[in-house]
Amino acid sequence: MSLVNVFDLDGVITIGIMPKEEDLIITGRSFEERPETQKYLKKLGLKNRVYYSPLKFNEKTRKSSGRHKSFVLSALKREGVNVKILFEDDPDQWEEVAEHCPWVSIVKITHDLTEKENVRHYED
Question: Which residues have a Cβ under 8 Å from the Cβ of 50 and sit 6 or more positions away?
Fold first, then answer.
């Protein structure tokens, strides 16, 4: 069983907490935000696998992003991927993950450096 850590993008990677090559990124960003997100990750030199929210940009919420992360973490577990740690900065999302994925340790990153609500991301 492979062992990986999982990183949130906004408020984690965007403030400089970086994944290793084998780690995964689960973001609350919509699949519609993939082009600008991939451009940003390329600029950072990151080639990690990214799991995007299946919801349209205008449909997603902080809570739905937490549910998305729980769903992906559960799917990874069924596939034999052993997720050790999730790095997350949104209390709504880490509470959702804690409730549905008790096997995942959550590093709760607390700061006021990024917006938590649904906003477009243009890091260029």
Answer: 9, 24, 25, 26, 27, 34, 37, 38, 41
Phi-psi region of 11 (alpha: psi -120 to 50; beta: other; left: phi over 0): left
Which among 54, 27, 55 has a CA at the least distance from the CA of 41?
Answer: 27
Rounded Cα distance, 24 and 5, in Å: 6
Strand order through the sheet with 24-30: 49-53, 24-30, 2-7, 81-88, 105-108
Question: Domain 2-108 falls in which CATH fold?
Answer: Rossmann fold (3.40.50)
- Provide the residue ranges of all domains of the chain, joining segments of one domain with +: 2-108
- What CA–CA distance (Å, rounded) separates 58 from 5? 29
Q: Per-residue pLDDT tens, the chain, 124 aa: give them.
A: 568 999 999 999 999 999 999 999 999 999 999 999 999 999 999 999 999 999 999 998 889 999 999 999 999 999 999 998 999 999 999 999 999 999 999 999 988 766 655 555 555 5
